[in-house]
Write a structure and sequence with these properties.
348 residues; alpha/beta; 4-stranded mixed sheet; 10 helices
């Protein structure tokens, strides 16, 4: 996608091929800072501390982290130890486990001297595949958007999204944003209502940053404004990404997604979930079985950003105790359809 006027991806190999470069998303949108990851510990920190985020992007980073671990020590003991180190960083996103399993399967039967190269090749393939999957999601979503816009051709197509499911959260295009980018590039007048997405503000900081760089019209709104906009007929569809979809079609995504689905259902607004097959978890029966990550209360009680002087600072918003569940579950009955690389499905 477009960053500072140039096509780019969210992750790439270093020039020497021995590490990877990612955007430090904690700095966005105030500073565009690329950082190098050179070993498995750095990859684990980047995932755990949310330098990088989004289920597909977590998987890609973990895959390269695994390859870097095997470059340092390709033995069987480290094959298992590195897997466990990376697996424990984020418990909810299923792409993490999928990517680690894919790399481990690619190297398990090889002589130790061949493992690192094979792991890097598999990680490269995972990234290329993710970009193609997201492109396909975008194409199928574009057909849906054309249909939605044809119902009201005299005004922009208004899409509401939640959190960041864009190219920053994947390798390229994004999941929920892929149809938006393709629609915009195809000349369909599309406008995006961007939920701020408390407590980490991924919508206001990341999704808006992406859309602005690509030239897509958008407006940042408070998380709880979406229901009113739907009631007033100012939302044509809600499109979100997901960290995991279970066998019965339940959707685990950033906290607040469930409330958007309820509001959409009450106002007859279609609610779509965009995902590649790597985010589908057939081994988990329903959302009730998904571990919900509880993150630090400080994410909720403090806010960071530039002050009047332009310097980045942190302020408190409360001194009271706070709880910070990072995800919620939207039941399959509230999902209009799943936008996948295979098409728009009414059930998964």
């Amino acid at each position: 996608m477009i960053l500072e006027g140039r096509p780019t991806r969210s992750i790439r190999r270093t020039e020497d091929g021995k590490g990877v470069v990612i955007l430090d998303q904690r700095k966005l949108p105030w500073e565009v800072r690329w950082v190098e990851l050179r070993d498995v510990d750095a990859a684990a920190v980047a995932i755990r501390e949310m330098w990088t985020r989004g289920a597909p992007m977590i998987g890609a980073t973990a895959a390269y982290g695994y390859a870097m671990a095997l470059a340092a020590d390709p033995g069987d003991a480290n094959l298992q130890a590195a897997y466990e180190t990376l697996f424990e960083t984020r418990p909810t996103a299923i792409n993490l486990r999928w990517a680690l399993d894919a790399v481990r399967a690619a190297v398990a039967g090889l002589p130790e001297r061949e493992r690192a190269a094979a792991a890097f090749r598999r990680a490269d393939e995972i990234c290329d595949e993710d970009a193609e999957l997201c492109r396909a999601i975008g194409e199928h979503g574009l057909a849906l958007f054309r249909e939605l816009h044809a119902r009201n051709p005299d005004r922009p197509l208004n899409i509401l999204t939640h959190c960041n499911a864009g190219w920053l959260a994947t390798v390229d295009y994004g999941t929920a944003t892929a149809p938006i980018y393709l629609a915009h590039d195809a000349g369909i007048p599309v406008h995006v209502w961007v939920d701020e997405t408390r407590p980490r503000n991924q919508g206001a900081l990341l999704t808006a940053f992406e859309l602005r760089n690509h030239g897509v019209p958008h407006t940042v709104i408070a998380d709880n404004a979406g229901g009113l906009l739907m009631m007033k007929g100012q939302v044509d569809a809600v499109v979100v990404g997901t960290d995991r979809v279970t066998r019965n079609g339940d959707v685990c995504n950033k906290i607040g997604t469930y409330l958007k689905a309820l509001a959409a259902h009450d106002n007859d607004v279609p609610f779509y979930v965009a995902l590649p097959y790597t985010t589908f978890d057939p081994n988990t029966e329903s959302g009730a079985d998904i571990p919900i990550e509880e993150r630090s209360a400080e994410e909720l009680t403090r806010l960071s950003g530039p002050g009047a002087s332009g310097e980045i600072g942190t302020v408190r918003v409360t001194d009271s105790p706070a709880a910070n569940p990072a995800f919620d579950v939207t039941p399959a009955r509230l999902v209009t359809g799943y936008i996948t690389e295979r098409g728009v499905l009414d059930r998964i």
